Amino acid sequence: MFSVLIFAPLIHAKHNISSSRYELLSGSKRNSPDSKKFWDGQYNSEKYIYGKAPAKFLAQNYDFIPGQSNVLDVGMGEGRNAVFLARKGYLVTGVDISSVAIRKAGVLAREFGVRINTVTASIDDYKAHPESLDAIICFYYVDRSINKKLISWLKPGGILIYEANTDLQMNVRDNIQQSKKYLLRPEELLKMFPGLQILKYEEPLHKKDFTASIILRKPKKNKV
Length: 224
Description:
With 224 residues, the chain is an alpha/beta fold. 23% of the residues lie in helices and 23% in strands. The chain contains six helices and eight strands. An eight-stranded mixed β-sheet has the order 1-7-8-6-5-2-3-4. Strand 3 (91-96), helix 5 and strand 4 (117-120) form a beta-alpha-beta unit.
C-alpha cells in the first residue's frame, strides 16, 4: 500500500514569480551550454538562495531511508538537503555542476559539524556503479533522460525520493511555455520510474508553487 494525497484545485490567482526564481525551481537552465556559468552566478552570494533548511517533504519523510545509508543528492545545489541527511547519520554524496554551490555546501556542512562528499559535475557525466546506492534524492531537477540511470544505480531495496514542480505552475506565471519540458505533468511522477514500488505520493494543488513528490523503492531480487 502507498499513500496518495491529491487536493482538489482552488481558483488559481496569478502570482508574480521572478523569471530567475522560476528557472531555479524548474531546473530550466541546468542543461544549457552555459549552465555552469549561470548557476555559479546564481549561487555567488553569501545568502543561501533556497535557505539552509531542508525541503519540507524530505524533512517529513527522510526516515523512509534506512539508517546510515549511502545517499546520492542529484543537483545538490548549496547543500541544504545533503547536510540535513548527514546530520541524521547518512553518508551523503552531492553532485552539482556549480563549483560555487559545492563550496557553499561545504561551508554549510562545517557550520553544522558534519561531512559530505561533493562532486562538481553534470549528472550526465557523473559515474556510479550499478546497484551501488542505498538511496537517491532529487529535488527540483527534472531531466527525464537520467531516469533509467537513477534506477540502475539503486541497490535492490533502495529508496528514491523525488520532488519537482508540475506544469500547473504555468497558472501562476505568464510566458513560460519554453520551460514546460522542465515541469512535471499532472500525475506523471507516478509513471516516471517504471518497476519501482510507490511508497508515498503527494500532489497538492492549493499552493502557488505546484509540486509533485514521491517516495519509491526498488524491488528486492527474488532468491533462487
